[in-house]
Amino acid sequence: MKGVNLLLELTEGARADAEARRAELSYEALEERARAARQPIDVAAALAHDPGHTHVIAEIKRSSPSKGALAEITDPAALASEYAAGGASCISVLTESRRFGGSLDDLRAVRARVDVPLLRKDFISDEYQLLEARDAGADMVLLIVAVLQPERLRELHAFALDLGLSALVEVHDPSEIEHALAADARILGVNTRDLKTFEMHPERFAQLRSQIPAGVVAVAESGVSQLADVERYRADGADAVLIGEALVRDGEPQKRVREFGAVR
Ligand SMILES: O=P(O)(O)OC[C@@H](O)[C@@H](O)c1c[nH]c2ccccc12
């Protein structure tokens, strides 16, 4: 159960960090500012199935619990510009600081540089974090079904949409897909990394794909390192792929995003 505990630890850590920020800026003050911020882009539309192209969600991630340090990334906005120039449909910015080395400042810096839809990638369990996401310029937030009770998932999903944000709802198994769909998820991400063992199970995407209804965006997450991986997920029915490590480690991320996105 190590991985489940890790997910809970990450979620509790992220919540404690948000509580500390809340002591500086009240919920009410943040809500007022967030609702006055730039209107988010509809990411479900931006990621809708395109027969000629696989949408690439390109991630900015410095480190991870499974791999440790990945890349220094002193200028996240510069990396984001490379991703955007390569045609990324969305950019995922890790804002979790304890194990992934990210921050909301990274998200703000990226927002100031690119017009591409942005995902706030974090361990979200509270409305305050959704307000922060919109305030920092995100268009989409990550909601991980494994760490949220069904009712909480529904509430947070509804509040995200109320704020104009889209939600990437992350699932690992059939029952989590049911919870996600019951919460009215429009964008489903199948994480093929097992969070208990950190092992990759790329076959899991194909196994779960048939449960994702037409019209709901299907995202294959994790473990994409080469063109063949994108081709495989595409053949299995992915509308989009979410790629972190391979892109932050690549010397030519723009070229790599373009190459991956050209898969039909
Ligand atoms: O670096 P990879 O193997 O390409 O994986 C990217 C992404 O899927 C991964 O970072 C991820 C998937 N779900 C998450 C939830 C939280 C933090 C990170 C993640």
Task: List cofactors, ions and other ligands.
Answer: indole-3-glycerol phosphate
**CATH architecture label name:** Alpha-Beta Barrel
Number of helices: 12
Rounded to the nearest angstrom, the radius of gyration is: 17 Å
Q: Which structural category fits the helices and strands?
A: alpha/beta
Average residue-wise pLDDT:
96
Give me the count of strands: 10
Largest sheet: 8 strands, parallel, barrel
Model description:
With 264 residues, the protein is an alpha/beta fold. It has a single domain, classed as Aldolase class I (TIM Barrel), CATH 3.20.20. Helix content is 44%, strand content 17%. It has an eight-stranded parallel barrel with strand order 1-4-5-6-7-8-9-10, surrounded by eight helices. The chain has a two-stranded antiparallel sheet with strand order 2-3. Helix 2 (27-36) packs parallel to helix 6 (127-135), helix 4 (76-85) crosses helix 5 and helix 4 runs parallel beside helix 12 (253-261). The longest helix is centred in the first third of the chain and has 23 residues, at 2-24. The protein binds indole-3-glycerol phosphate (IGP). Indole-3-glycerol phosphate binds at residues 59, 61, 121, 170, 191, 221-224, 242-246.
Features of the shown structure:
about 260 residues; alpha/beta; TIM Barrel; eight-stranded parallel β-barrel; two-stranded antiparallel ribbon; 12 helices; 10 strands; binds indole-3-glycerol phosphate; amino-acid biosynthesis; Indole-3-glycerol phosphate synthase; EC 4.1.1.48; lyase; phosphoribosylanthranilate isomerase activity
